[in-house]
Automatic annotation (TrEMBL), chains A, B:
It is found in: Cytoplasm. It comes from Sphingomonas limnosediminicola. Keywords: ATP-binding, Cytoplasm, Ligase, Nucleotide-binding, Purine biosynthesis. This is Phosphoribosylformylglycinamidine synthase subunit PurS. It comes from the Bacteria. The gene is purS. PANTHER family: PHOSPHORIBOSYLFORMYLGLYCINAMIDINE SYNTHASE SUBUNIT PURS. It catalyses: N(2)-formyl-N(1)-(5-phospho-beta-D-ribosyl)glycinamide + L-glutamine + ATP + H2O = 2-formamido-N(1)-(5-O-phospho-beta-D-ribosyl)acetamidine + L-glutamate + ADP + phosphate + H(+). Pfam families: PurS.
Amino acid sequence: MKARVFITLKNGVLDPQGKAIHHALEALGFSGVNDVRAGKMIELDLADATSEADIEDMCRKLLANTVIENFRIERLESAA
Amino acid sequence: MKARVFITLKNGVLDPQGKAIHHALEALGFSGVNDVRAGKMIELDLADATSEADIEDMCRKLLANTVIENFRIERLESAA
């Protein structure tokens, strides 16, 4: 089973990486960019028995820093 | 308009960050993890006039290194 975890900074947390990307886009001449936020995506290839709760546990214990980050889990059921 | 860009390493490109996450998950006692790939997600808040081609241009020129990375664009239409 495959699963994707999307990790984003919480609202209100400063995002210097996003700011740098924003400035770089403007320097390259792209107009109409209002805001940029940078996040992470982690693709997991898991045993089929892995439950949603297990994945959430991985996020809380390792993948995301829940003080400043939100995470969202997307399970991609493997074709049987 | 909001758009998300997902950037992943191409198949066959070594992913030391993913490997490190994989080892850390195993060290924490999570079994059944076959593989981990680390990627990036960039959330863009754009002017409504921005076209798909513009976003693709941003990816090719700045956001992704197309030699080793693939990108996927997801447009989230703003509620009018």
